[in-house]
Design goal:
248 residues, alpha/beta, Spore Coat Polysaccharide Biosynthesis Protein SpsA, Chain A, two-stranded antiparallel ribbon, 9 helices, 26% strand, GlmU-like, MobA-like_NTP_Trfase, MobA-like NTP transferase domain-containing protein, transferase
Amino acid sequence: MRPDALSPQAVILAGGLGTRMRPRTERTPKFLLPVAGRPFGAWLLDRLAAAGFGEAVLCVGHLGEAVRAAMGDRFAGLPLRYADDGPELLGTAGALRRALPHLAPVFLMTYGDSYLPFDYLAPLRDLDAHPGALGTMAVYRNEGRLDASNTAVSGDLVARYEKRRADAPPDPALDHIDYGATALRREVVEALPADTPLGFDAVQRDLAARGRLRALPVAARFYEVGSERGLRDLEAALGAPAAAEERG
């Protein structure tokens, strides 16, 4: 096994403004929103630590100092590093580019408002098994139910990715959705322009068009705290006995 596989790295995009959750997020970043009696980030970091990750890099921006103060340099035994957007928010891909000095050769990227009831290491194992791919994205067959579907899958590849608004007309070809966890090779981030605002959807779209983005189907629905409905759904799930067994 390669040395970097012995201590897998998670990179958490936690710098967004959280506009859909205002006024909650005017003074509290989404990563720290209270969920079932704890900051959301505590739930996420617990899952990553239990999964076996060796460290987490938090890409912060809006109210980033609050995240540092709350989480510190280690949480649940998981060492934490921080990469700050700086004075200008850089978007999800721009934040990854800013974090380049901290990135492992292969890492798992996830969102700081997503809680995923699956094996977080699975995308990394899939990418490791397919050296010709540049990324493996977990996908969920959503068919427009939980949010606007944005992904077309063909075999074991993401055939097309298109970020869409929730009120966009349905596209039958886009029957899956980005689950919120993607294994990436560092070289993908190295190729991005430095200090340039850019969304990660541009990276997903490019990798899919080049046939270099694998699809990893996941059966369980995702949860998120980027909307009031999402937060309520997650609190209900965390309070259920099944969720407690899964976390244990």
